[in-house]
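Task card 7
Instruction: Convert sequence to structure tokens.
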Amino acid sequence: MSEQARRLLRGVLRLGHGVPEPPRTTAEWFTAHHAELVAAVAVGDDDALTLYAHAWAALPADADEAWWRGLYDVATPLSAALPRSGPLATALRVGAEALRARGLLRHAVALGVRELAVRRLLDDPDATAAALDSLAATYRAQGRPHRVIGCADEVLELRIRAGRPDGVARALAHLGTLMVEVGRPDTAVNYLTRAEKVFADLPPTPDRSAARVELARAVWLAGDEAAGRRRLRRALPELPDEQARRARSWLDLPPGTAPDEP
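Output:
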């Protein structure tokens, strides 16, 4: 790492701890070092990518567009030059989440898509699933449920290929819950029934309990209220407190009332 990059990383790490180099504020530090920070990141070695991730993490909430725009733009040449770089993927995730937190959702999606491309090439199912989950969070913030479902569907494919029943069960349950959210209870019943079958061969977990509650709700919303209520009553003994509270709140509803989220 060059002395310039080492100095910038020290400065960024101080920002992350809320102690910018005196006498500058965080805003003044980014204004003063913006150009050299971007230039150092563009070098693209592992140390530069470490600096890239920390710079995104230290970006203040009221960041001027010029501060994040340079960090955003440098992702294009870095992604082209380093299509299989794990450290780059990590930095892109930090950047996407920083932009999402600031409401810059279109730009957050772009970085999330770049991260996902790297993760796919690296062929790490867990890391790819995590990238999909992060990207789905941005799509959700954009109000694009079809994209959220697309991410969840790819996670399911990853879990099936990896041959991990626990992951398959959770992915099926998540897709079922999403289908309830978008008003497709019949499809939700399909996914959640499949999840229940996989969970049946696994040790009891909160995820299994939650899936049982969601399946009962989906059955109810699909038009069979009596069966939904029966499923909730059967599930109650194994439910943790919060899930039991949800189940009881639905069981207390008058007949003909939809079990919406409280």
